TrEMBL record:
Coiled coil: none annotated. InterPro entries: CHP02453 (IPR012808), UCP028451 (IPR015996). This is TIGR02453 family protein. It comes from the Bacteria. It comes from Shimia thalassica. Transmembrane segments: none annotated. Pfam families: DUF2461.
């Protein structure tokens, strides 16, 4: 028997979500809602609580948790399929107006663990640009993480914003209006390390970026 109480969450979630991709209708979901609750929702809520306690100890901050609903908001979308085909979890630690996010997501095509701020508010954006302009702290942190296999979120801007030079040495970071960094994992990674430990190891690696971001928010 596995010592990981969440050993079945990733494979069972991916299997369910794969079926949902092919049967994305309210009737199918309602017929299978008990399975969703048993295999995905309830274990995810338990995982949120376990990671919340560990993350609180690591950051010495209060942690708020969120399990994203499976229902899609289709009001302004051409895609009217009613359900997301992923399972996303969020832990938030307080900083600024929006807080800092710690993320875990499962889908048929990815397993991702990340952290950061999805979108800076106006003040944080100005602080971010000033910090990136002044020194290479964030460039070094991001470089260290990418050498560990992480990937950076895509920049929101196509060009370096004024008043910074187009050839600014850290122009790629200046094009960001938020910053999140991600580790993509395979099912074998999760099975080998255990889900809780795999998430917390990634969060520990991501902590220096979060610590550097916090004063800007």
């Amino acid at each position: 028997m596995s010592s990981d109480p969440f050993a079945s969450l990733v494979p069972e979630a991916r299997a369910f979500l794969t079926k949902l991709e092919s049967n994305n209708s309210r009737d199918w979901f309602q017929d299978n809602k008990a399975q969703y609750d048993t295999l995905l929702k309830n274990p995810a809520l338990a995982l949120l609580d376990v990671i919340s306690a560990d993350l609180g100890r690591m950051t010495a901050q209060p942690v708020t948790t969120k399990l994203f609903r499976p229902h899609r908001d289709v009001r302004f979308s051409k895609d009217k399929t009613p359900y997301h085909t992923h399972l996303h979890m969020l832990w938030t630690t307080p900083a600024g107006a929006s807080g800092q996010g710690w993320y875990f997501g499962i889908s048929p095509s990815y397993i991702s663990i990340g952290a950061g701020v999805m979108g800076f508010d106006k003040t944080a954006l100005l602080n971010w640009r000033a910090a990136v302009d002044q020194d290479a702290t964030f460039a070094t942190l991001v470089s260290d993480l990418t050498h560990k296999g992480a990937r950076l979120s895509e920049p929101e801007l196509k060009r370096v914003p004024a008043p910074y030079a187009k050839d600014h040495p850290r122009g790629d970071l200046l094009r960001h209006k938020g910053l999140s960094v991600w580790f993509d994992k395979s099912p074998q990674d999760i099975k080998k390390g255990g889900l809780t430990e795999t998430i917390m190891t990634a969060f520990s690696d991501l902590l220096p970026v979060q610590s550097a971001l916090r004063p800007l928010l």
